[in-house]
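Example (one chain per record):
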Amino acid sequence: MAERGFSILIFRSFSLNLFSLPFPKRAVLILDFECKIISTQDSSEPSDPSRWWEWEDYWLSPILEEFGAYLDQTKNRRLVFRDREGNIWVFPFETRFSRSYQRKLSARFEDIVLDWGLLLTLTTDLNRYSDIISAVKALKRVWNRVLSGLRRRYGRVDFFTALEFSFKRGHGACHLHIVLLHITHLDLNWLRERIGTHARWLHVCRFRDLHLGGKKGYLTKYLRKQIVVFASKPSDIIAFKSSALLWVANARGWSCSRNFMCSVRREPAGWEFIGCFPAFVAEHPDFQSAPELWSDPELWVFLRGRRRDG
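Predicted structure:
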């Protein structure tokens, strides 16, 4: 295996020793360091068959086809709830890739402004994995190692992450954008030990007054890349591909620490979730009067048998 080395690009005015200095008065992003890991993904030949990520027709096309079939199925599903007064409510099945869901999520974080901290970006060396699912899982494990180390050093760590897939230049390479609130220092050697050979690039910069939600929020920027719109624009095609990879890898497009979730507005509690049903069942008048009957699993086994037998 080729020996790995590190080349570090450090801006002369903002070295690692300046992490503890006061932030500037205006809201800006300051690049503190950028580290490139010399990887086999760079050294291998473009025509090498092991560079599976470049053969999108082979590995990505089946995923897109299955994802499209999943979206078609959800169009005919309904979610059924019972409120505190016993009334039955039926809602369309809304996936996390719909525009309405993303708008609601962005609105929940609209009032959150993070005063200062660090932005960390972890990339992935796809040459070390045989498929995109393995790469995404490994990226999660790397982030968990980094987070565990930060908690041992700082105690409580407030964070926000956004998972992204690069299609403009990276053939779907997964990378993680991480917001670390009130973290003043990241030692490069310490970070390298926890990341190992997974990442190709490390990118760290400082921020101040970072808006999460809203039209121009940090979260909103990445949510736009996960909205499924059946159009021919390049941005819409990339969003469809990114959403399909999140779906097949069973990965969340974003995550955050618990205190972030406690600080955002939530929907009123107290509603009972009855289940997810086909539209023709949930919208039938008889269902409104006795929804528990339709929740009986034995009934569904019977109905499927009747349909199979004609």
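Caption: The two ends are 60 Å apart (CA to CA).
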